[in-house]
Amino acid sequence: NAGVMQNPRHLVRRRGQEARLRCSPMKGHSHVYWYRQLPEEGLKFMVYLQKENIIDESGMPKERFSAEFPKEGPSILRIQQVVRGDSAAYFCASSKAIGELFFGEGSRLTVL
Amino acid sequence: GESVGLHLPTLSVQEGDNSIINCAYSNSASDYFIWYKQESGKGPQFIIDIRSNMDKRQGQRVTVLLNKTVKHLSLQIAATQPGDSAVYFCAEKEDFGNEKLTFGTGTRLTIIP
After folding, report:
1. Is residue B109 within 8 Å of B85, Cβ to Cβ?
2. Whole-angstrom distance, CA of residue A68 vs CA of residue A77
3. Would you say A7 and A106 are in contact if contact means Cβ atoms under 8 Å apart?
4. What's the burial of A25, exposed, middle or buried (CB within 10 Å: 0-12/13-18/19+)?
5. CB-neighbour burial class of residue A98 (10 A; exposed 0-12, middle 13-18, buried 19+)
6. DSSP string, A59-87
7. Which of the 8 DSSP states describes residue B82?
8. Mutate to test the interface with A, among B37, B101, B108 (most CBs of A within 10 A)
9. How far does the CA of residue A16 sit from the closest CA of chain B (Å)?
10. With contact defined as beta carbons under 8 Å apart, do A96 and A27 qualify?
């Protein structure tokens, strides 16, 4: 019974490139959340999605960031034209309709 | 409140002793609180939760205390073990129907053998 799967675990990009982070929720979970964590800080909410719908994107930067959770396949967090300030750990969590959040191991993005 | 990028508060405890980690929250509308443990290079791991209509909840070796008057939450870990070394975060949310969490800054707990 696999947990929340995130890939890649580590990603290096040069400024201006695109980063795509993938998250497969736990089996039976239809709710996905993305969080960002800077070194020595807590996690900051970015976006909450259900299948094919964005429910709450109040934590997403207005530009360059987008997220989707298609009917089939993993949820994708996409960062266009990355800048050094985007370097962080990005965590995905999933849940059933109501219930405990289960976190993945995170994707660590480094922008050179 | 928002972190300003300062180093995490740290707490060092002798193995076998009890530890208390504190957390202040700011949103009086929060009605559900969770403690997470995060080991280096890993994602947050659920430890224990508490609803706002309770002031204490116990688990295995852990106890969470909630003081709504002063908006304060604490995590007590009894008989600490080396495996307890990690960063501990409190998290809060307003609406039990939405799992969106607001995380605190975190405390780094180090267990001294």
Report:
1. yes
2. 7
3. no
4. buried
5. exposed
6. TS-SSSEEEE--SSS-EEEEE-S--GGG-
7. G
8. B101
9. 25
10. no
Residue B105 φ/ψ region, left for φ over 0, alpha for ψ in the -120 to 50 degree band, beta for the rest: alpha
Strands (E), chain B: 10-14, 19-24, 32-38, 45-51, 56-58, 62-67, 72-77, 86-93, 102-103, 107-112
Contact B41 A105 (CB under 8 A): yes
* CA–CA min distance B45, chain A (Å): 7
Give me the percent of chain B exceeding a pLDDT of 70. Answer: 89
User: B41: left (phi > 0), else alpha (psi -120 to 50), else beta?
Assistant: left
Predicted confidence (pLDDT) per residue in B53-67, tens digit: 999 999 999 999 999
Give contacts of B 22-51 with A, CB under 8 A: 36, 41-46, 49
Tell me the pairing of strands A19-24 and A5-7.
Answer: antiparallel
Is pLDDT of B3 > 60? no
Nearest CA to A89 out of B84, B34, B98, B40 is that of B40
DSSP three-state, residue B38: strand
Residues of chain A positioned with their CB less than 8 A from the CB of B41: 105
